[in-house]
Amino acid sequence: MGTVVQVESNDEAVIKASRRSFGRYGAPPDASDPEILIQICVDPDRHDDRPLPVPTYRSLRHIFHIACSDTNFAVADLASGCAIGFVSPEMVGKASFFCYTFLECLFYVMVVHRSHTPVHCSSVALNGSGILICGAAGAGKTTLAYACAKSGMQILTDDVAHLRLDPTSDRLLLWGNPWCLRLLPDAVQLFPELADEKVTQRRDHDWYLEIDTLRRFPGRTLASCRPAGLVFLVRQEGVPTRLSPMRREIALERLREDITLDEDAIIERHYSVLDQLVGTGTYTLKYSGAPSTAVEVIKSLLHKELRR
Predict the structure, then answer these.
(1) Could you say which of 32, 103, 173, 280 has the lowest number of CB atoms within 10 Å?
(2) What's the N-to-C CA distance of the chain in angstroms?
(3) pLDDT > 80? residue 225
(4) How many C-beta neighbours within 10 Å does residue 218 have?
(5) CA-CA distance, 174 to 170, in Å (whole number)?
(6) What does the alpha-carbon distance between residue 89 and residue 45 come to, in Å, rounded to a whole number?
(7) pLDDT tens for each residue of 249-263
(8) Domain boundaries, the chain
(9) SS3 at position 250
(10) DSSP letter string over 254-299?
(11) Average pLDDT over residues 160-170
(12) Reduced to 3 states, what is the DSSP secondary structure of residue 191?
C-alpha cells in the first residue's frame, strides 16, 4: 500500500500471520525507521480458551485501544505510527480472527490517520483502471466483485479500499487487499463451485467463505490501480438492470458518512481526497436477481473509461 510496516513479536506464529496479512504486497525496502511499527507480545503463561469475544474499540485524540479481554488487548499511538499488543497463544491460534481484529485493524487505523483515505466498497479493474462498487450492507458488493472476477476482470478488494495521493505525481492511487474474498455461506446458491470452500469465523457471529483468489482466479489479483469511477449498488427486486448518473455532491455526502471522527486536519485531508475521487465519475446501478447483468454493466463502464 505504499507504506513500510514492520511487525515484531516473540512468537513466530505472529510473524506468520503478518505475512498472511501484508506479505503479498511485496518485500519492503530496507528501512531502519518504518512508517508503521506493530509489536505483539504473546504471553505463554496466560491462557484464554473462551469463545471468541466481541472486541471493544476506544480512542482519545491520537490514542487507539482494542480490548477483547484482560488477556488480549492492544494500544496504538496514531501520531507516531507505533502499536503494542499483548495476546494469549489461543488468540494467535485463531488466525482469521487475530489478523482481522489485531494486526489488520491496528495497521489500517494508523495508516488512515497518517496517509490513506478509506472507502467502504468492493473494487474490480481492467488494465490498471478500477471501479469502486459502493452500497449498503446486503447490496451485494462482494457478490458482484466475485462475479466480475469470474468474467475475467481483475479483483482489487472485497470490503474496503484505501486511497492515497501518489507523492511523485499527485494523482490518486487506489489500494486494496485482492488476495481474499469473503462471501456469506449462502453464496453457494449463486456459485455452486464454492461448495467445497471452508467456512471460517472472522469475529463473533460472523461466518464467511474465505476465497483464496490466487488459487481461484490466478493472474487476476491487483493490489493497486488508478480509480476510474464509483458505482453505488442498489438491489431492488423486480427492476431491470440500469446504470444512471449520480450527482457528485450526493456521492460525496455518502462517502463522507464512512469517515470516522479524527483531528480536524485529518478529516479535511480525507474530504479533499474524496472530492477528487468523485470527479472520476459517479453512478447508481440498480439490479435484481443474479449479478450477471450487473457484471456486463461494470465491464462496459470500464471499457468506456479505458477509451477516454
Answers:
(1) 32
(2) 27
(3) yes
(4) 8
(5) 13
(6) 9
(7) 999 999 999 887 778
(8) 5-115, 118-306
(9) helix
(10) HHHTTPPP--HHHHHHHHHHHHHHHTT-EEEEEE-SSTHHHHHHHH
(11) 86
(12) coil
Q: For residue 56, which of 34, 73, 39 has the smallest C-alpha distance?
A: 73
> Average pLDDT, whole number, for the chain?
89
Q: Is 270 left (phi over 0), alpha (psi -120 to 50) or beta?
A: alpha
Name 235's bridge partners. 287
pTM listed for this prediction:
0.89
Q: How far is CA 188 from CA 47, 183, 287, 296, in A?
A: 37, 9, 20, 21
Q: How many Å apart are CA 261 and CA 266, to the nearest integer? A: 9
Do the Cβ atoms of 48 and 32 come closer than 8 Å? no
Which residue type occupies 199? Answer: V
DSSP 116-130: -EEEE-EEEEETTEE
DSSP 203-242: ETTEEEEEEEHHHHSTT-B-SEEEEEEEEEEEE-TTPPPE
Report in angstroms the alpha-carbon separations of 118 from 47, 169, 175, 195, 306.
Answer: 35, 20, 9, 32, 24
Name residue, grid cell 487506489.
Answer: 174
Q: In CATH, what class is 118-306? A: alpha beta
- Read off the C-alpha cell for 91: 488468540
The radius of gyration of the chain from alpha carbons, rounded to an integer in Å, stands at: 20
